[in-house]
Fold each of these.
Amino acid sequence: MSNQLTELYLDVLDFVEPLRTRLEQRDALEYLFYRYGWDATMDDAAFARFRQAATIIAPIEEFTQTAEALRAKVASGTDLDASEIEALAGSTGVLIKALAEFGMPNLSGLDDPLGRSLACTIAGFGDSPDLHVMMNMFWERLDFEVPVAPGRQWRLAIDTFAASPQDLHDARSGPAVTAVTCPVGARSIVVLESTEAATIA
């Protein structure tokens, strides 16, 4: 018993095999990360931690083992029975779910290769305003959450994505930021400064 859906399940193996190979070899994994913007060197201990923490590895190996055996059976001219197709469909479903949910494991000593943004708030002293800095190293615009500052109002101070002279604003004179999120352009930095809410025109 075989059909087009079964063939589609088996074709997923061609997509998964290169990924499985990358995850099995330290140098290959480093190169995979490098291609997606993370230049990191992993020692044997870090690679072992990754292998242990990456939840995607077990579904890939289970699917690969099932699909390779069934593909060989189909190639020999033997039809698959209903239980084999059901097992293939099940392992494919688990694999697809794992791929969709995959994120970088929490590895001590390694930066997140998918982390391309950072925000922090710097408290001002005396008459100095508070600053909220949002850094976007991603190649697309990202929306950052603007922190709530009771009794104060955020104003735009710096936006490196904007064209001059809109990229820099004099102290406490930039446009008010009233939304709960603030857009930050690709590969750019936005700095907000807080002012007393009563001073907003």
Amino acid sequence: MAQVRIRIRESVVNRYVSALTRKSALAAGNRVADRARANVLKDGLVNTGDLADSFKVKDLTRNRLHPKVKVYSAVDYAKFPEFGTRGSTAGPGKMLRFQPRGSGVFIFRKSVRGVRAYGFFRKAAKLSIKDFKP
């Protein structure tokens, strides 16, 4: 019986495997960003379109074999439709005062209702995780 000896150089394997894992991680990040964008449009959260266009994917990989990507929104107000806000009520004998953006007029209210949480990003991440489970 013949004996076969195989020598595998770890550096060569790591180079090929790391390229594939990085590419897969970026593809998964882009998929989450695309689904979040679709959820924003589906839920009707479009006024200027800035929120839908703001999803970005950033490569945070430090170890080639353990790629890491970050999917985020570049607008500062994305947390409000994602997580929602609670209502607010003024105390006894007081009023809430608001000045709408671009207006010189103040609005006074006794209470305001909150914004419901849409969870567009959480839904996108949850659907994407199902794609990668065996």
